[in-house]
Amino acid sequence: MPIDSADTVQVPAGSWTFDVSVGGSEHGVPVLLLHGFPQTEECFDQVLERLHEAGLRTIAPRQRGYSPGARPKGADQYTMKHLAEDAARILDALEVPYAHVVGHGLGATVAWHFAAAYPLRAMSLTAVSFGHPSAFGDAMANDQDQRQRSRYLELFLRSGEAEKALLANDARTLLATAPGGGIEALTDEPTLTAALNWYRANLAPGGEGLDCPVIEVPTTLVWGTRDAIAGAAQAKGTAHYLRADYRLSEVPDGDHWLPLRAPAALASEIALRTLRN
Questions:
Q1: 14 with 89: CB under 8 angstroms?
Q2: Per-residue buried b or exposed e for 33-62, using 16+ beta carbons within 10 Å of the residue's own CB
């Protein structure tokens, strides 16, 4: 029978327990939604409502570091391999063999790696804001505009210093980085450190987060033309790393925070992928 709204359940997956929002039609086609920094699964709330109306089942985990029961110590515990494996184990625990996969921001990077590692479990991929990790790496190496947009990484990679700066003055700087979406959860320093470990494990020199195989899963990249964090070079370059049906959907005047700023447009793109694949 249909579920009117999403419920948060505790899902054991491997050594950890995750808080997971599950909602929509019990027998609907499953959609896995992966949040990025500095938001939780709450960033998808307005998108979920629309997906439920379309008859889809949604699974939105509060990912490693964000869930209290899945917060290991040490940056090496937050590699993309670990994060993608978490997603697979959450699906296993919910007895979901495959799903349409959605990821926003750094969560899109997890989604790209999931599609690369588990192509038979990803019915489709809808990446939001962040293109293919290797395309992003190309942009960082060759595009001055993207390097300028990514200067915040210099702070995020500094353990201790970043936490102090972001949490100063009642976390004023942290809370100003995104328009809600569960960001308040990161005002607790251990949670913030765990979330920043995503960057330290994957985007520090020598990190493997931007090294991702070519994708063979039908894919849509939804990108806002006024995204201040992820520029045009990485969006345009993503096509070079796809060997499947691919579409770049540009949101005119859209910024980086599309799940909150343009939930209807994003939900439409996700629903379109579920119908086509």
A1: yes
A2: bbbbbbbbbbbbbbbbbbbbebebbbbbbb
Tokens of residue 66, six digits: 């964000």
Query: pLDDT for 180-228, tens place per residue?
Result: 999 999 999 999 999 999 999 999 888 889 999 999 999 999 999 999 9
Phi, then psi, of 118 in degrees rounded to 5 = -130, 60
Say which residue the tokens 């992003």 belong to: 136
The CA-to-CA distance between both ends of the chain, in Å, stands at: 24
As a 3-state breakdown, the chain gives helix, strand, coil percent values, each rounded to 5, of 45, 20, 35
Q: At what angle do helices 189-202 and 106-117 cross, to 10 degrees?
A: 50
Q: Which of 18, 242, 220 is nearest to 126 (CA)?
A: 220
CA 234 to each of CA 136, 146, 167, 171: distance values in angstroms, whole numbers, following the listed order: 5, 8, 30, 30
- Specify the 3-state DSSP secondary structure of 6: strand
At 60-97, the pLDDT tens digits run 999 999 999 999 999 999 999 999 999 999 999 999 99
Instruction: Tell me, rounded to whole angstroms, the distance of Cα 149 from its chain centroid.
Output: 19
What DSSP state is assigned to residue 240?
Answer: G
Which of 88, 82, 81 minimizes the C-alpha distance to 61? 88
Count of CB atoms situated within 10 Å of the CB of 202: 23
Q: State the alpha helices, DSSP H only, in 3-103.
A: 45-53, 80-93
pTM for the model stands at 0.97
